[in-house]
Protein backbone atom coordinates (compact mmCIF):
# COMPACT_ATOMS: atom_id res chain seq x y z
CA UNK A 1 0.00 0.00 0.00
CA UNK A 2 1.02 3.66 0.01
CA UNK A 3 0.29 7.07 1.51
CA UNK A 4 -0.47 10.08 -0.70
CA UNK A 5 0.25 13.39 1.02
CA UNK A 6 -1.04 16.72 -0.32
CA UNK A 7 1.30 18.75 1.81
CA UNK A 8 3.26 21.93 2.34
CA UNK A 9 6.99 22.15 1.78
CA UNK A 10 8.78 24.93 3.66
CA UNK A 11 12.19 26.41 4.04
CA UNK A 12 12.39 26.63 7.84
CA UNK A 13 14.68 29.29 9.28
CA UNK A 14 15.04 28.56 13.00
CA UNK A 15 16.30 31.14 15.49
CA UNK A 16 17.37 30.12 18.98
CA UNK A 17 16.28 32.89 21.35
CA UNK A 18 16.50 33.49 25.13
CA UNK A 19 12.71 33.75 25.24
CA UNK A 20 9.82 34.13 22.82
CA UNK A 21 9.69 37.82 21.77
CA UNK A 22 6.85 39.98 23.06
CA UNK A 23 5.19 42.78 21.05
CA UNK A 24 7.57 45.66 20.38
CA UNK A 25 10.67 43.76 21.51
CA UNK A 26 13.88 43.48 19.48
CA UNK A 27 15.70 40.31 20.47
CA UNK A 28 19.10 38.95 19.42
CA UNK A 29 19.18 35.26 18.47
CA UNK A 30 21.91 33.02 19.86
CA UNK A 31 21.88 30.76 16.79
CA UNK A 32 20.32 30.45 13.33
CA UNK A 33 19.86 27.35 11.17
CA UNK A 34 17.96 26.44 7.99
CA UNK A 35 16.01 23.19 7.65
CA UNK A 36 13.57 21.41 5.38
CA UNK A 37 10.14 21.85 6.95
CA UNK A 38 6.42 22.40 6.53
CA UNK A 39 3.77 20.20 8.04
CA UNK A 40 3.41 18.26 4.81
CA UNK A 41 7.13 17.66 4.31
CA UNK A 42 7.57 16.71 7.97
CA UNK A 43 4.78 14.16 7.73
CA UNK A 44 6.11 12.71 4.49
CA UNK A 45 9.57 12.23 6.00
CA UNK A 46 8.05 10.65 9.12
CA UNK A 47 5.94 8.28 7.01
CA UNK A 48 9.00 7.28 4.97
CA UNK A 49 11.10 6.75 8.09
CA UNK A 50 8.36 4.59 9.60
CA UNK A 51 8.93 2.20 6.71
CA UNK A 52 5.99 3.10 4.45
CA UNK A 53 5.93 4.32 0.86
CA UNK A 54 4.83 7.95 0.66
CA UNK A 55 4.10 10.06 -2.42
CA UNK A 56 4.26 13.79 -1.81
CA UNK A 57 1.92 16.08 -3.77
CA UNK A 58 3.00 19.71 -3.54
CA UNK A 59 4.76 22.70 -5.05
CA UNK A 60 7.99 24.61 -4.58
CA UNK A 61 9.57 27.68 -6.18
CA UNK A 62 12.90 27.74 -7.97
CA UNK A 63 14.51 28.88 -4.70
CA UNK A 64 13.47 25.61 -3.09
CA UNK A 65 14.76 23.00 -5.53
CA UNK A 66 16.97 21.70 -2.75
CA UNK A 67 13.92 20.89 -0.60
CA UNK A 68 12.61 18.45 -3.21
CA UNK A 69 16.05 16.90 -3.54
CA UNK A 70 16.26 16.43 0.21
CA UNK A 71 12.81 14.83 0.38
CA UNK A 72 13.93 12.36 -2.28
CA UNK A 73 17.09 11.67 -0.30
CA UNK A 74 14.91 10.87 2.73
CA UNK A 75 12.91 8.26 0.80
CA UNK A 76 9.90 10.34 -0.27
CA UNK A 77 8.53 9.94 -3.82
CA UNK A 78 8.77 13.47 -5.26
CA UNK A 79 7.56 13.03 -8.84
CA UNK A 80 4.34 14.93 -8.05
CA UNK A 81 6.03 18.05 -6.67
CA UNK A 82 5.61 20.90 -9.15
CA UNK A 83 7.97 23.81 -9.60
CA UNK A 84 5.95 27.03 -9.87
CA UNK A 85 6.66 30.73 -10.26
CA UNK A 86 7.03 32.52 -6.95
CA UNK A 87 8.86 31.66 -3.74
CA UNK A 88 8.88 28.40 -1.85
CA UNK A 89 6.85 28.54 1.38
CA UNK A 90 8.93 29.72 4.32
CA UNK A 91 8.63 29.63 8.10
CA UNK A 92 10.50 31.82 10.56
CA UNK A 93 10.65 29.93 13.86
CA UNK A 94 11.79 31.25 17.24
CA UNK A 95 12.67 28.55 19.79
CA UNK A 96 13.35 29.25 23.47
CA UNK A 97 15.53 27.17 25.85
CA UNK A 98 12.48 25.21 27.07
CA UNK A 99 11.68 24.09 23.50
CA UNK A 100 8.61 26.27 23.05
CA UNK A 101 8.27 28.05 19.73
CA UNK A 102 6.61 30.89 17.83
CA UNK A 103 6.18 30.59 14.06
CA UNK A 104 5.55 33.05 11.25
CA UNK A 105 4.53 31.36 8.00
CA UNK A 106 4.78 32.83 4.48
CA UNK A 107 2.53 30.45 2.47
CA UNK A 108 4.27 30.74 -0.93
CA UNK A 109 4.12 27.87 -3.42
CA UNK A 110 2.27 25.50 -1.08
CA UNK A 111 -0.98 27.39 -1.68
CA UNK A 112 -0.40 27.42 -5.44
CA UNK A 113 -0.34 23.67 -6.16
CA UNK A 114 -1.75 23.07 -9.68
CA UNK A 115 -4.94 20.99 -9.75
CA UNK A 116 -3.45 18.94 -12.60
CA UNK A 117 -0.63 17.90 -10.26
CA UNK A 118 -3.17 16.59 -7.76
CA UNK A 119 -5.24 14.80 -10.39
CA UNK A 120 -2.23 13.17 -12.03
CA UNK A 121 -0.95 11.96 -8.68
CA UNK A 122 -4.22 10.45 -7.48
CA UNK A 123 -4.77 8.74 -10.84
CA UNK A 124 -1.89 6.49 -9.77
CA UNK A 125 -3.33 5.68 -6.33
CA UNK A 126 -4.92 2.35 -5.50
CA UNK A 127 -8.08 1.54 -3.58
CA UNK A 128 -7.16 1.14 0.08
CA UNK A 129 -4.22 3.56 -0.03
CA UNK A 130 -4.17 6.39 2.50
CA UNK A 131 -4.57 10.06 1.60
CA UNK A 132 -3.59 12.81 4.06
CA UNK A 133 -3.55 16.59 3.93
CA UNK A 134 -3.17 19.55 6.31
CA UNK A 135 -4.33 23.16 6.37
CA UNK A 136 -1.19 24.58 4.72
CA UNK A 137 -2.14 23.99 1.07
CA UNK A 138 -4.83 24.80 -1.47
CA UNK A 139 -7.11 22.11 -3.01
CA UNK A 140 -7.92 20.43 0.31
CA UNK A 141 -11.67 19.98 -0.23
CA UNK A 142 -11.17 18.99 -3.89
CA UNK A 143 -8.53 16.47 -2.86
CA UNK A 144 -10.40 14.73 -0.04
CA UNK A 145 -13.56 14.50 -2.17
CA UNK A 146 -11.63 12.92 -5.04
CA UNK A 147 -9.67 10.60 -2.78
CA UNK A 148 -12.83 9.35 -1.08
CA UNK A 149 -14.55 8.70 -4.43
CA UNK A 150 -11.51 6.67 -5.51
CA UNK A 151 -11.74 4.41 -2.47
CA UNK A 152 -8.80 5.82 -0.55
CA UNK A 153 -8.83 6.11 3.23
CA UNK A 154 -8.77 9.82 4.03
CA UNK A 155 -7.03 11.60 6.88
CA UNK A 156 -6.76 15.25 7.85
CA UNK A 157 -4.38 17.02 10.21
CA UNK A 158 -6.32 20.07 11.34
CA UNK A 159 -3.45 22.54 11.61
CA UNK A 160 -3.02 25.44 11.32
CA UNK A 161 -6.57 25.32 12.62
CA UNK A 162 -9.55 26.73 10.75
CA UNK A 163 -12.93 25.41 11.88
CA UNK A 164 -14.63 26.15 8.55
CA UNK A 165 -12.02 24.16 6.62
CA UNK A 166 -12.34 21.20 8.96
CA UNK A 167 -16.13 21.24 8.65
CA UNK A 168 -15.82 21.42 4.85
CA UNK A 169 -14.03 18.05 4.70
CA UNK A 170 -15.43 16.32 7.79
CA UNK A 171 -17.93 14.08 5.97
CA UNK A 172 -15.15 12.55 3.85
CA UNK A 173 -12.75 11.71 6.69
CA UNK A 174 -11.80 8.34 8.11
CA UNK A 175 -9.15 9.84 10.39
CA UNK A 176 -8.78 13.25 12.04
CA UNK A 177 -5.93 14.43 14.23
CA UNK A 178 -5.81 17.70 16.14
CA UNK A 179 -4.38 19.04 19.35
CA UNK A 180 -6.25 19.84 22.56
CA UNK A 181 -6.78 23.52 21.76
CA UNK A 182 -7.95 22.73 18.23
CA UNK A 183 -10.32 20.07 19.56
CA UNK A 184 -11.94 22.65 21.83
CA UNK A 185 -12.17 25.16 18.98
CA UNK A 186 -13.84 22.56 16.79
CA UNK A 187 -16.25 21.65 19.59
CA UNK A 188 -17.13 25.35 19.98
CA UNK A 189 -17.79 25.61 16.23
CA UNK A 190 -19.76 22.38 15.79
CA UNK A 191 -21.22 21.73 19.22
CA UNK A 192 -19.77 18.21 19.00
CA UNK A 193 -17.18 16.35 21.02
CA UNK A 194 -14.53 14.27 19.18
CA UNK A 195 -16.53 11.06 19.54
CA UNK A 196 -19.61 12.67 17.93
CA UNK A 197 -18.01 14.05 14.76
CA UNK A 198 -18.90 11.03 12.61
CA UNK A 199 -15.22 10.24 11.92
CA UNK A 200 -14.16 6.65 12.57
CA UNK A 201 -10.89 7.56 14.30
CA UNK A 202 -10.08 10.86 15.99
CA UNK A 203 -6.83 11.52 17.84
CA UNK A 204 -6.42 14.50 20.14
CA UNK A 205 -2.78 15.14 21.02
CA UNK A 206 -2.05 16.53 24.47
CA UNK A 207 1.63 17.48 24.29
CA UNK A 208 3.50 16.20 27.32
CA UNK A 209 0.31 14.53 28.58
CA UNK A 210 0.15 12.10 25.64
CA UNK A 211 -2.85 11.59 23.37
CA UNK A 212 -6.49 10.45 23.40
CA UNK A 213 -7.89 8.19 20.69
CA UNK A 214 -11.63 8.17 20.02
CA UNK A 215 -12.51 5.02 18.05
CA UNK A 216 -15.15 2.32 17.85
CA UNK A 217 -14.34 1.18 21.38
CA UNK A 218 -14.64 4.64 22.89
CA UNK A 219 -11.91 6.84 24.31
CA UNK A 220 -8.47 5.43 25.02
CA UNK A 221 -5.59 7.39 26.55
CA UNK A 222 -1.90 7.01 25.73
CA UNK A 223 0.73 8.47 28.03
CA UNK A 224 3.69 10.40 26.66
CA UNK A 225 7.26 9.33 27.39
CA UNK A 226 8.98 11.55 29.98
CA UNK A 227 11.75 13.42 28.15
CA UNK A 228 13.36 16.84 28.43
CA UNK A 229 12.31 18.84 25.35
CA UNK A 230 14.71 21.17 23.55
CA UNK A 231 12.50 21.96 20.52
CA UNK A 232 8.85 20.98 20.04
CA UNK A 233 8.76 22.07 16.36
CA UNK A 234 7.61 19.20 14.14
CA UNK A 235 6.83 16.81 16.98
CA UNK A 236 3.13 16.68 16.16
CA UNK A 237 3.88 16.14 12.47
CA UNK A 238 6.26 13.32 13.37
CA UNK A 239 3.58 11.72 15.53
CA UNK A 240 1.01 12.00 12.75
CA UNK A 241 3.36 10.60 10.12
CA UNK A 242 4.23 7.59 12.26
CA UNK A 243 0.57 6.89 13.01
CA UNK A 244 -0.23 6.90 9.29
CA UNK A 245 2.82 4.81 8.49
CA UNK A 246 1.72 2.23 11.02
CA UNK A 247 -1.86 2.15 9.73
CA UNK A 248 -0.58 1.83 6.15
CA UNK A 249 1.43 -1.20 7.27
CA UNK A 250 -1.68 -2.82 8.73
CA UNK A 251 -1.02 -2.12 12.40
CA UNK A 252 -3.98 -1.76 14.75
CA UNK A 253 -4.45 1.82 15.90
CA UNK A 254 -3.11 1.09 19.39
CA UNK A 255 0.17 -0.19 17.99
CA UNK A 256 0.46 2.70 15.52
CA UNK A 257 -0.09 5.25 18.31
CA UNK A 258 2.43 3.51 20.59
CA UNK A 259 5.07 3.71 17.84
CA UNK A 260 4.19 7.33 17.07
CA UNK A 261 4.42 8.29 20.75
CA UNK A 262 8.01 7.08 20.82
CA UNK A 263 8.83 8.96 17.62
CA UNK A 264 7.31 12.17 18.96
CA UNK A 265 9.23 11.87 22.23
CA UNK A 266 12.52 11.45 20.39
CA UNK A 267 11.71 14.39 18.13
CA UNK A 268 11.36 16.93 20.94
CA UNK A 269 14.89 16.12 22.14
CA UNK A 270 16.33 17.43 18.83
CA UNK A 271 16.74 20.84 17.24
CA UNK A 272 15.21 21.10 13.76
CA UNK A 273 12.34 19.80 11.69
CA UNK A 274 12.20 17.25 8.85
CA UNK A 275 15.96 16.76 8.78
CA UNK A 276 16.06 15.32 12.31
CA UNK A 277 12.94 13.12 12.38
CA UNK A 278 13.95 9.77 13.92
CA UNK A 279 14.09 6.66 11.77
CA UNK A 280 12.39 3.37 12.58
CA UNK A 281 15.46 1.72 14.14
CA UNK A 282 15.80 4.62 16.60
CA UNK A 283 12.13 4.43 17.48
CA UNK A 284 12.27 0.68 18.06
CA UNK A 285 15.30 1.04 20.32
CA UNK A 286 13.82 3.88 22.39
CA UNK A 287 12.40 2.90 25.76
CA UNK A 288 11.95 6.30 27.37
The low-confidence parts are none
CATH topology: UDP-N-acetylmuramoyl-L-alanine:D-glutamate ligase
Q: Provide the CATH top-level class.
A: Alpha Beta
Specify the structural class.
alpha/beta
Instruction: Kindly give the count of domains.
Output: 1
Q: Name the CATH homologous superfamily.
A: Ribokinase
Offer a few descriptive terms:
single chain; 288 residues; UDP-N-acetylmuramoyl-L-alanine:D-glutamate ligase; nine-stranded mixed sheet; four-stranded mixed sheet; 9 helices; globular
Describe this structure in words.
It is a single chain. The chain is an alpha/beta fold and 288 residues long. The chain has one domain: UDP-N-acetylmuramoyl-L-alanine:D-glutamate ligase. It is built from nine helices and 13 strands. The protein has helices at residues 39-49, 65-73, 115-122, 140-149, 163-169, 180-190, 235-248, 253-267, 280-285; strands spanning 3-6, 10-16, 31-37, 54-60, 77-83, 89-95, 101-106, 130-134, 153-157, 175-179, 201-205, 211-215, 218-222. The strands form two sheets. Strands 5-4-1-8-9-10-11-12-13 form a nine-stranded mixed sheet, sandwiched between helices. A four-stranded mixed sheet has the order 3-2-6-7. The longest helix is centred in the C-terminal third of the chain and has 15 residues, at 253-267.
Amino acid sequence: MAVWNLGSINIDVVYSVPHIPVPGETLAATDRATFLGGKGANMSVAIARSGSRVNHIGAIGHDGIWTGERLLEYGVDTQHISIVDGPTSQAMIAVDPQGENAIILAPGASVDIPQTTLQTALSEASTGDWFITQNETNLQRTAVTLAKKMGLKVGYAAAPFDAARVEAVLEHLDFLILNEVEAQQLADATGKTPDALGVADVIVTLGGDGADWYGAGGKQHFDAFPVTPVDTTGAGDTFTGYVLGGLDQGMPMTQAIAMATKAGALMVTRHGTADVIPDLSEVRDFNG
